[in-house]
Fold this sequence. Notes:
By secondary structure, the chain is mostly beta strands. 0% of the residues lie in helices and 58% in strands.
Amino acid sequence: MNVGGPVTAARTVRGATARRGESGFRRTPVPDPGGDFILHAVSEPFAVGATSGGPLVLAWNGTTWAPEALPERDPALHGAVLTAVRGDVAVGGAFDRLRLAEIPLLLRRSALSEIPVAPRDASVVAWHDDGAPELGFPYVLTGVSGPWAVGHGFPGSVVLRHDGAVWKPVPVPGRPVRPRAVAATSGGLLVAGAHDKEGVILHLDGSAWRQWRTRTGPVTSLALWRGGAWAASGDELLHWNGRRWAHRAAPLRINALSVGHAGLQCAGAGRVAVFDGRRWTVRDLPGTWLGADTDWFVGTA
């Protein structure tokens, strides 16, 4: 029975990828994992996101993308999604309907030499739970870089560091922040996010934290380029000039930052741009682009 007027079919959501070529970025085919799906982040050879049934990892073999087998999903989890990947580690979160709380997802991929079955067998589960620590409060993870992972929960920020054996929490003083992005630097760590709706960037120099309020909305992306740090908040870019975070107008509303062969890259809805140090080159690229690395953009179509 229809009591609300005409029924409009739900929009189909399909993950999308685009690869850098000689003439710019071009869309590449993506396998259909069944039903709607989204891709949030990429770090070649892996792209991560979610389907309606749970987390999703695609692997690039040099020619095509293919889904990878993941550990069996707990049926109590709802809305499980992977939102970041770097190297062989992917992070995200889910809602546990039995505990009525958010929980982190922290997966690591075993080296192919450690897998006893031929890696061409798609049923081989190369990814395993990497042991997100209990912190005494619910949390999810949103970013990963090197041995670092970040996220948020209540009552505070979450920063984890892998010591070569296990993940351990790193205390973050000051007001709580909801981290959205992380970048490991030669001298420490950059973490970007928000306090309430105000953008915040944190820096750990190895022993002490420093915090900047950016006077923007939430800071969602970080990139390290030409010895400097860049951050994005919607249609604003921030560049560390050695003394402060300088504001610059962005060429588009940015969802993702990365460093490519031609310069600093950014991606958003329907457009991507590259900054060579002097000027921006903006191109149309159908899709909504949510994640980026050197050679790839990922998102939805």
